[in-house]
């Protein structure tokens, strides 16, 4: 099939590359010429393991075309995917839909013959209805079907998530569009996953409800971790014991810092906003957002306690600063408020992250990026294991730090407290 992905951000690029890999011809369109030039030179502007190889292969075989020419791409395609950003509007919780609507207006001018328009951008409930209003005349002439097909890709695992999805959600009442989309997804859904057709509003809500539920699971285990700390119980055991009940499941029950990234914080807030538009009090989601906000302060206070009263000139090492491993993304990373706080307290901060130096900390006087784990750890007073990159899972801290007394705050519970005790290392985890 011939596809057009509008927007070469995370969702558009990963989906476009993967669709081309299963034999489709895919036009990836972006207004940003620099980005298109990079992509045409085989350079991937986002950090996603494995993406570059698949992109280069399909680009060489001419199944993947990068262009700024929206009209040509749309006219040449059967299915158009809207994959543009929906950031939060300034000083509000509402998703900003200006890019989505601007694409819809462009499509309204271009389309002359039947096309399926699939919205993959994360948009609030009823956005599909608004897109349909913009395309009212085309819809009346049966020249378009507007479908919701939310994406469930995790950064760092996006290719696997795309090729082996747990489910493919298609929100449409059109039998014709559903049939075509089912055949598009056939090579993927053959592999154990589920293809699920529902209403367009249903699909839109599934996306937000899924992210809010996962955020709830994380916040729940984080609060249980707080209780474990007070009660002398290991939260990892509690999560394992709870998770082996298949109704609960053990995934997303890892206690740690406040959840971050470009999705959970934004989508939980947007869902609350949708709730109020539909006059529904989503009190559980509200509590989750609150709990996650409080967690940022709570963990900073824990660092206070670990360090004791004397902060001045203490050297603190952050291993990992991104919101999760296998990404360079710093959006809503809990390391940001933490480092800001410690910096104010006149600590000296060194950090290492496998994805490199971060602009977020460049203006701070006492925050230094180190290009190796050993440089970051040398002679430090406290190591904060902030992000669970594989690189940090088998470290010999005594050898690295080369100092008699130091402390470790393992925010991802990567190490065994018992082993640390045997090594006579002052070790603190989360919920244990
Ligand atoms: C999330 C969802 O997992 C995807 O399904 C969804 O498609 C995506 O948002 C999106 O809406 O685009 P992502 O933000 O890439 O994906 O990252 P996650 O792996 O879900 O992690 C989010 C945050 O939760 C991270 O800060 C991570 O450290 C934290 N987390 C995750 C925990 O603290 N504990 C866990 O057990 C799992």
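Sequence proposed for the structure above (432 residues):
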């Amino acid at each position: 099939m011939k596809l057009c992905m509008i927007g070469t951000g995370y969702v558009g690029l990963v989906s476009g590359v993967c669709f081309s890999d299963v034999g489709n011809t895919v036009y990836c369109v972006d207004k940003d010429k620099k980005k298109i030039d990079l992509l045409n030179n085989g350079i991937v502007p986002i950090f996603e393991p494995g993406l570059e190889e698949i992109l280069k292969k399909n680009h060489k075989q001419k199944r993947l075309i990068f262009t700024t020419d929206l009209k040509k791409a749309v006219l040449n395609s059967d299915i158009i995917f809207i994959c543009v950003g929906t950031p939060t509007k300034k000083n509000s919780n509402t998703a900003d839909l200006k890019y989505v609507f601007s694409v819809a207006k462009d499509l309204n001018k271009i389309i002359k013959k039947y096309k399926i328009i699939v919205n993959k951008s994360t948009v609030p409930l009823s956005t599909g209805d608004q897109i349909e209003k913009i395309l009212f005349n085309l819809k009346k002439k049966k020249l378009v079907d507007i479908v919701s097909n939310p994406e469930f890709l995790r950064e760092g695992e996006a290719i696997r998530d795309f090729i082996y999805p747990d489910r493919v959600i298609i929100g449409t009442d059109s039998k014709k569009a559903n049939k075509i989309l089912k055949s598009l997804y056939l090579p993927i859904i053959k592999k154990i996953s589920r293809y699920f057709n529902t209403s367009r509003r249903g699909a839109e809500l599934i996306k937000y409800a899924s992210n809010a539920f996962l955020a709830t699971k994380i916040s729940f285990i984080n609060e249980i971790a707080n209780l474990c700390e007070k009660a002398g119980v290991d939260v990892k055991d509690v999560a394992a014991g709870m998770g082996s009940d298949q109704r609960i499941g053990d995934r997303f029950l890892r206690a740690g810092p406040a959840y971050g990234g470009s999705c959970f914080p934004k989508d939980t807030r947007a869902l609350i906003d949708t709730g109020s538009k539909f006059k529904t009090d989503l009190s559980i989601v509200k509590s989750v957002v609150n709990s996650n906000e409080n967690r940022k302060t709570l963990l900073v206070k824990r660092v206070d306690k670990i360090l004791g009263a004397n902060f001045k000139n203490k050297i603190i090492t952050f291993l990992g600063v991104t919101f999760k491993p296998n990404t360079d993304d710093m959006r809503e990373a809990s390391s940001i408020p933490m480092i800001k706080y410690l910096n104010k307290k006149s600590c000296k901060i060194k950090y290492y992250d496998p994805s490199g130096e971060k602009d977020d900390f460049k203006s701070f006087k006492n925050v230094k990026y180190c290009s190796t784990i050993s440089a970051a750890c040398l002679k430090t007073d406290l190591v904060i294991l902030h992000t669970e990159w594989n690189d940090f899972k088998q470290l010999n801290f005594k050898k690295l730090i080369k100092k008699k007394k130091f402390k470790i705050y393992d925010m991802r519970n990567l190490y065994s407290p018992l082993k640390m005790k045997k090594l006579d290392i002052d070790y603190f985890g989360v919920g244990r």
